[in-house]
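Researcher: Next entry in the queue.
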Amino acid sequence: MVETFEKNLADFTGAPYVVATDCCTHAIELCLRYDKVKKIKSTTCFTYLSIPMVLTKLGIQFTYDDEMWIGEYNFKSTRIWDSARLLHPKMYRKGQLQCLSFGNGKPLNNKRGGAILCPTKKDYTKLKQMSYDGRDLENFKNWIDQREFNLGFHYNIPYEHAEQCNKLLEKYKKKDNHLPHIVEYPDCRLVKIKG
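Model: Structure for this entry, 195 residues:
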């Protein structure tokens, strides 16, 4: 079911490949790790709290800007996009990594879920492996048979969430419009992160 959802989402968005994850924040974290981002020129200060948290956790240098965004925004000087509030046909930006959210109040209003729209088979394979505990899903059905692992994280989407997202996507495709969800976020410059 996960692979079916990934394929259906790729077809809808125009992305060559899609990696389903358990949430958008983890999708962003995987992309930042995968591209080995150490510094971001700037990113909007108007975002969800998990964004500065993950940037701080990864030790990434960044500054805020005042960008008011609708649907998605870019982490400047990277190819990574937070597209948590956007889902429309052929939305994929060539060569980019776009991270989607399927949480409450999002275009696919599921309990939880996320995805990475990515450009190449290599990106897909590496990000999929990272999201799934470092498992080599192409060569090993059971993880116990695999003896060597690249560093991975338990960020894969659960089967039942992928199944529900796939049903929601089929309904969403039939909508007349696919406008971005507009939400006003607080200014994260007012938040101090300790630790």
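Model: Strands lie at 17-21, 39-44, 61-65, 73-74, 80-82, 97-101, 114-118.
Researcher: Noted, moving on.
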